[in-house]
Amino acid sequence: xxxxxxxxxxxxxxxxxxxxxWLGWVTSTDHKRIGLLTVGTxxxxxxxxxxxxxxxxxxxxxxxxxxxxxxxxxQLFTIHGSGMIxxxxxxxxxxxxxxLVPLQIGAPGIAMPRLTxxxxxxxxxxxxxxLTGFATPLGAHADGWFSYPPMADSRHSPGAGSDxxxxxxxxxxxxxxxxxxxxxxxxxxxxxxxxxxxRLSVFSWSMIVSCLMVIGAFPSLLAALGLLAAGRADPxxxxxxxxxxxxxxxxxxxxxxxVYVMFFPFLAAVAEVLAVxxxxxFFGYKGTVLSLLVFxxxxxxxxxxxxxATGQATxxxxxLASIALLVPAGVEYFAMVGxxxxxxxxxxxxxxxALAFIPQFLIGGLSxxxxxxxxxxYHVTDSYFIVAHLHYVxxxxxxFGLFAGVYFWFPKVTGVMLGHGAGRLHFWLLVIxxxxxxxxxxxxxxxxxxxxxxxxxxFEGFGWMNLLSSIGAAxxxxxxxVFAVNVLWALRRRTLGTAEKAPGDPWGGHSxxxxxxxxxxxxxxxxxxxxxxxxxFAPLLDLRQRQEEQDAxxxxxx
Length: 558
Prior knowledge:
Elements: H1 21-26, H2 31-60, H3 70-104, H4 113-131, H5 160-189, H6 202-233, H7 241-255, H8 257-261, H9 264-278, H10 285-299, H11 315-324, H12 326-340, H13 349-371, H14 374-380, H15 384-414, H16 420-446, H17 463-496, H18 539-556
Helix pairs in contact: 2-3, 2-4, 2-17, 3-4, 3-5, 3-6, 4-5, 5-6, 6-7, 6-9, 6-10, 9-13, 9-15, 10-12, 13-15, 13-16, 15-16, 16-17
């Protein structure tokens, strides 16, 4: 779909052009601005949640330290975990979809833009409400991102901080559900001519399956939070164990699919980067699409493996379903490796992050199969082994995919490039920091160090591994500082007009977002930058290959 650029005070559809400045941003119905607001808010919160993590690692660097009190430490790990899952990685993934999906399907905008904007503001308000718990007399919520009753009821966790946590998570989750609905509806109803479902990019397919999980699983969290709120109003609700276990079932029906909502979009960003920087069409496209759908379906049927230790789950079924995840995961890994084998690799920063994603996330995936086996899970449950597994999934995996996407699409969004030297420094600091921080945690957990403890005795022998992990966290802090400076410097140079303008398609992209200008106009495509013919899931690659064939034919003609 192609439209002319807007002129005057109205666009070509007769709709008023929104005001400029900050008011235009906070009231905008342009999906690109809403996506950037979501992603930008998530990145700011990422730095805040990282600061909480550094404080915890400083506390645990040596045995029997008292840098923070035990109660404050409980608040730190609760808000860190809650913030990273509810307020950072999940909204970032959906924000990428809000920005990119309409461009990738050739649409002038997102479906239901005002509703999408409402979703963002509910998310942002939820983050503020959750964090205000620190200002209450008894502090913020302190019972973990899962907040099991009866420990999270008002008898065991008094104070307004816990109530604010429930309200904040409820608001944020409602906002992400709304954004999931609008992104999915956009794909289903606003595709350009010729854009069949099997011509969607891998990233757009990842958003389809992610949004299906958001719509199917996230309301379960709202029900769990409602049950927890009722239990805080009347703690006798949780005197009956059926409600304690019922809460866990409701929570983990959300809690396992959300891991893949925080993974699939970044896996797809890696897939896009690998194809572009290998100079090849993505290998095994149809198999990958099918595997994403199967993966999403299976992910909503394995929640009980988080409850092995309760004795209230059917262990054989949930273990078998968990191990079955190996099949679609293997298809996706095979497709990524098949894409780069034999390709002409260009090792720009996006490609470095994408390549590192593959082996690092493999550690998280394989350790997930281990804890999906009851006999192993009984030994390592609620230990630092679980902390290591979770962070290899969401940091060594998803965060590397996130940064691959940021470096890849930054010139599309801003029209300028991030510094390549700073990008490489960021990459190596992140690789070192990630593995030095989280690998020792597998050994700590296996040897018996429980998670969610603010101190440990020197005779337990955990000191040197915790020190090593804390040193790794310092590398992570340095990596994030380099990234922040790189982004701010590029944006400042853009504002001052001293930055070198990036080409419209600096990487040789394959999907439709690279067919328009960088940054895109308000309605995405214009008469100057129309939507090209869509003949496959890589339409721009098709155009270049046809042009090369025509040029070759012209050179060979007599």
